[in-house]
Amino acid sequence: MAVSTCIKCNGHSFELALFTPLGDSRKLTIVQCGTPVGVMDPTMGPQIEALKSQIAAIDERLNRIAKALTD
Questions:
Q1: How confident is the model over 10-64, as pLDDT tens digits?
Q2: Residues 27, 31, 35, 37: is their CA dihedral positive or negative?
Q3: Residue 20 · residue 10 · CB < 8 Å
Q4: Which of 29, 33, 39, 62 can bridge 6 by disulfide, Cβ–Cβ 3.0-4.6 Å?
């Protein structure tokens, strides 16, 4: 699996921080390693988690198929 690397500092550690854009009332999430490298709408979190669960379920089924084919 590839390791995410910051294009500015070549670091591999990222954090999420909430911020409110000037003139706005909603909060957004910044992905940063010290320097902002991306912005996410926090309402996407549950959708991302649902997709991760679906991918994990597909991966589990593929592993069972692969095991059955090698037995």
A1: 888 888 888 888 988 888 888 888 788 888 877 777 888 899 999 999 999 999 9
A2: negative
A3: no
A4: 33
Task: Give the separation between CA 29 and CA 66, rounded to whole angstroms.
Answer: 39
On whether the CB atoms of residues 7 and 1 are closer than 8 A, the answer is no
40: number of Cβ within 10 Å: 13
Give the DSSP letter string of 5-70: --TTT-----EEEEE--TT--S-EEEEESSSEEEEE-GGGHHHHHHHHHHHHHHHHHHHHHHHHHH
Q: Which residue is associated with the tokens 């090698």?
A: 70
